[in-house]
Amino acid sequence: MTTTSERFDAAHPRQSTLAERLAHVRWIAGGTGAGKSTVADRLGELFDVTVVHGDPAEPGWIARSGPEHPNLFALSRLPPGSFWAGRTARQAYHATPSVHGETLAHLVQDLLALPADRRILVDYFGVLPRHVAPLLSRPGQAVFLLPTAEWRHGVMLGRHGPVVDEVLAKRLVRDGMWDARVRKQAHRLGMPVISVDGTRSVAATAAEVAEHLDLGPAHGPRDSGQGGH
Hints:
By secondary structure, the protein is α/β, with parallel strands linked by helices. It contains 11 helices and 5 strands.
């Protein structure tokens, strides 16, 4: 399978490698409910880096996708809210565009359009270690937050209500499959994984992420508040 890096380099043979062009980018990925966005926003304040959240950009990526991104393109033809209808959790997993690296290709395009003279911190669920690895100058540019099943279950109930309906049940299974894939690939590639179970403060998790990403000394506002993920 042709990687994002290979496709880009083939189209721009006289430019620097994609990893070199993205050397100023750091990545926080992992599983749903792990507190990625909360940690990223905190680090953005503490280290004065530009934070890019991937989730809000997904509708735009779907709109600009074509047959070369078949799973994203399929979403553009589905009625709103119908992704889970008629699918098992496993079928939903394999239909998720990020499993195939389709969303990452669009995210990279967006990152390349931003100024490269300022560090960027990406927060996005849809990044598998094997897909992002060719975009890194070193493994420490990416860290993966993975929630325990119990913690994610509580987070998802808080977001969607106290009843585990059929869609939420499928999503929990799908996301568990994603986490297993992330953990296995990260271990093989030597990328850091942080487990999230709700027992640590946001500040403590953010400090560990900052250390893994080598963000340097903090110089933004600090506080001593505790928070959930």
